[in-house]
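Working notes for the structural subgroup meeting. M.R. asked for a predicted model of this chain before we commit to crystallization trials. I am recording the input and output together here so anyone reviewing the notebook later can reproduce the run.

Input as submitted:
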Amino acid sequence: MTAETPVTAEDDDGSGGKMPLLDHLIELRSRLLKSLVAVAIAFSVCLYFARPIFGILVRPLLAAGQGKLIYTQLFEAFFVEIKVALFAAMMIAFPVIANQLWKFVAPGLYRKEKRALLPFLFATPVLFTIGACFAYFVTVPLALKFLLGYQGNIGGVTQEALPSVGNYLSFIMQFIMAFGIAFLLPILLMLIERSGLVTREQLVSARRYMIVAAFGIAAVATPPDVLSQFLLAVPLILLYELSLFAIWFTQRRRNKTGAETAPVEPLEEA
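Returned structure, recorded in token form:
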């Protein structure tokens, strides 16, 4: 088999030949149903524990000195519990969803492509979790301390913060999702570099534009205060630099492996 010959499923792992379109659609439906069942089961469990989960989410608010949340609409507290349960269910069911996605895509990939994509698949939940934890333990407490600092007596009038449960849930979910997705930047850059869409040299030359883009993304993804935007923009810039180093390291490793596996030309006899 030459390098240009496409590999079918039978050539790759002996599991069979190419699948017709209808079989692909049936397979896709099966994977989607399994993912939805996983989300539904996780949602049912998380709905039962919605209040304890929300209790974990409000700890940064309590640590910032705000011990009161209100709701101004009768159904607001109910929908907050639904959102909390759905948010937690998606996090819990993500490994199942990712596994079903991989099982759908993997049969159409070459062995080399599978080996290249698997590390990114495992790194995605890890980096997202790191970003979410950074938001929960570092960014949200700092932002709350800054925003709640506007309470006090102003011209003889008491200014007091009375956040609603829905408003606070949207606030902390926005932070967790923004930082979780932002921490996936190394995976995105390494994938597009591996696919040949960009080179490391192009990414290095675009560094100044990335700094501007980081603050633009932070302005959109975080609440409209300077501290929150700064706390997201700086990690984005650092992650960009980390991505450049990771690309350099993987390129060096690929070049080294290619040099070791390259055929050696026989010496001509004198």
